[in-house]
Write a structure and sequence with these properties.
By secondary structure, the protein is mainly alpha-helical. The chain has 14 helices and no strands.
């Protein structure tokens, strides 16, 4: 979002603003890919991205960086670049686009949001692409059977986007604790939904963690389950049938 103080540094002509449209389309395309295949699917695209700011933002995103980390790193890179005019506008578009990806906004919303940064004289009348799909589409054919209760059972009926949405929001310390008692199916689902770096660190932490007491495990289950239920109620994920996480929030 552009504040009034920032606007004076990004003054540029309509023609210059129009050169930002391919960038907005690129970010919207990345958002669509992330929604269809999960955020982790962006990892293989990163080496081919030429813009350093976008490359850095996506790298942090697939590694599961928290919102404040993303804001801080991207903000520091923008400030130290000392750019103005259309070049600064492009950087602000990238920053807001990456943050919108992290927040899980729909691709069409991201495109509208970023196009609005170009101003009414450019944004009005631009035909936007129509994207299909929605948050947390269900992978119906997956069945959870004979698994140890961990608070993460609902991950087994979510697609990659849904799983990664949960993993971005859940407390990492709690995730580590519940994974220590989770079935191999759940562990596999979590680890294959993380970037290579994040999955490697999680495996190392699991190997070093040892045993947790039952009280810590129960508290971690409740927190993880609360995150899943919250995302479900806010519409970020969709679960057909019973949401197993509710048992920990309602009866825990």
């Amino acid at each position: 979002m552009l504040n009034l103080e920032m606007r004076k540094y990004i003054e540029c002509s309509k023609e210059e603003k129009l050169t930002c449209l391919p960038l907005i389309e690129e970010i919207a395309g990345l958002a669509q890919k992330a929604r269809n295949e999960g955020v982790l699917s962006l990892e293989d695209l990163i080496p081919d991205i030429g813009d350093y700011l976008l490359k850095t933002g996506l790298s942090l995103l697939v590694d599961g960086a928290e919102t404040e980390i993303l804001k801080g790193v991207l903000g520091d890179l923008i400030v130290t670049s000392d750019k103005t005019g259309v070049d600064l506008l492009r950087q602000m578009i990238i920053r807001d686009g990456v943050l919108a990806l992290e927040a899980g906004l729909r691709p069409e919303i991201i495109q509208i949001k970023l196009t609005a940064m170009l101003g009414e004289d450019v944004g009005v009348g631009i035909k936007r692409a129509v994207y299909t799909g929605g948050p947390g589409a269900v992978l119906k054919e997956v069945e959870a059977a004979n698994i140890m209760e961990s608070g993460l059972e609902d991950l087994l009926v979510l697609n990659a986007y849904g799983v990664q949405t949960v993993l971005r929001k859940v407390d990492r310390a709690c995730l580590l604790i519940v994974l220590s008692r989770a079935s191999n199916d759940i562990r596999r689902t979590v680890l294959t939904s993380l970037s290579r770096n994040a999955a490697g660190m999680m495996c190392e932490d699991l190997a070093r963690s040892g045993a947790f007491c039952e009280k810590d495990i129960e508290e971690a289950r409740k927190k993880v389950a609360g995150t899943i239920v919250g995302l479900l109620e806010e519409g970020y994920i969709v679960i057909e049938g019973e949401c197993k996480a509710r048992r920990y929030t309602e009866h825990g």
